[in-house]
Structures are given as C-alpha cells and as structure tokens.
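Tip: read the tokens left to right.
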C-alpha cells in the first residue's frame, strides 16, 4: 500500500471574470500522506481553498489530475464523485453550519442518516462526540455551546460515517489561538485513532508547523513544502 493517499498533478484552475481569465492555481503538484495531518498554508487569495475543493471532489481542475488512492477523480462521473464525497470524504468548514433545532447528538446522527450508514446511529454519534471531548455536552443545543465546542461537534459530524479522508477549510479561523490549537490536536488524535487522512487550510502562523506535511501556497503556486 502506497504511503501517498491523495495526489495532485499539475493542477490548474481558471475562473472567467469580467476582467478576463483568473488563474487561481497555476500547476500545483502535491502528495498527501496516508493517515497523516497535512496543512495547506497561505494568505487569503493564495489558492489553498481552491486546491482543497479540487482535492475534495467539490470542483474540477481546468487542467491536471487528482488521484484518490490511485484512482482519478477528475475522470469520474458526477454521480461517482457525489458517492465518493458521501461515503469516503468528510468536510469541516469555518462556518460550522449546525442545525439549530437539533442538539449535538442529533446533529451527528443526522449526518449518519445522510450518509446511509448501517451502524447504530446513536452509538456511533456518542462515540464521536466522546472522541472530541464532548461527552458531557451531547444534549446541548448549538446556541448553548461555545464556538470551540460547536466546531468540535462539526468535526464529530464529519468523521461519523468513517471517511477515509477529512478536509477542513480554515476550521480555526473564528477561534482564538488556544482553542484553535485544541482543534488541531483533535485532528492529530483522529489520525492516530481512526487512521483518517486529514487536510486542513490555515493562515494561523501558530498552527502551521504542527502538520506532518505542510505546503505553502502563494499566488496559485506551491512555494515550499515538507
């Protein structure tokens, strides 16, 4: 089994604007290690979210290819890409988007129903909330939770269906540095316990060196990586 789970090869993305073509990505190649935490860092407008969306099969590149465990997701049909997102990929965004009339446990259970999981929804939801340190907050509504707690519910929701890879776009963007560090430590623990591969974007300099692999983007290109 390859140590590389996801790879981008000369990925370019062009958007048509009123001012002409805008190349958000200009030939990006990157190898995402299996079962590790990879961080895409860069300033706003560097192209990291565009790259994340392409890696996560939410968008297609204008040129180039993306291999998901050896299989091209660029050449997949839209139905196959949707199935891949539903069954093998988890997403966490800066805006947690919890359902306000459901408590923490119900939010995670709802995600399991949407993924057509055959596991016990209640049992798996409780397991995931315990994993992110919310064993005592399962019955609380989103408005009764702090920003950091809401983000942890969003993480539990994203991993509930046992995705092979988790994409997190600026998951700490609205959190203070201490709380943001706690979220990243949860990601590290999930890599260890669940074997999930995680890719997250951030511009927080205090978090950038925590990843097992780090790629820095600037003006649509990777300028450094380790």
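Filled-in amino acids:
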């Amino acid at each position: 089994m390859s140590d590389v789970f996801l790879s981008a090869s000369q990925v370019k993305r062009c958007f048509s604007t009123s001012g002409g073509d805008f190349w958000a990505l200009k030939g990006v190649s990157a190898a995402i290690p299996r079962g590790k935490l990879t961080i895409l860092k860069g300033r706003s407008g560097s192209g990291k979210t565009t790259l994340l969306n392409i890696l996560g099969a939410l968008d297609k590149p204008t040129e180039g290819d993306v291999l998901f465990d050896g299989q091209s997701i660029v050449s997949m049909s839209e139905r196959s890409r949707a199935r891949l997102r539903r069954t093998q990929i988890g997403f966490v965004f800066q805006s947690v988007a919890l359902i306000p009339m459901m408590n923490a446990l119900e939010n995670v259970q709802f995600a399991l129903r949407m993924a057509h999981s055959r596991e016990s929804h209640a049992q798996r939801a409780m397991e995931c909330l315990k994993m992110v340190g919310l064993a005592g907050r399962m019955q609380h509504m989103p408005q009764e939770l702090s920003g950091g707690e809401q983000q942890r519910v969003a993480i539990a929701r994203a991993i509930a269906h046992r995705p092979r890879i988790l994409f997190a776009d600026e998951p700490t963007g609205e959190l203070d540095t201490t709380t943001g560090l706690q979220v990243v430590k949860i990601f590290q623990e999930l890599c260890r316990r669940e074997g999930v591969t995680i890719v997250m974007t951030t511009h927080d300099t205090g978090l950038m060196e925590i990843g097992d692999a780090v790629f820095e983007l600037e003006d649509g290109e990777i300028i450094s990586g380790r």
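Residues 184 and 210 are 8 Å apart (CA to CA). The longest strand covers residues 4-17.
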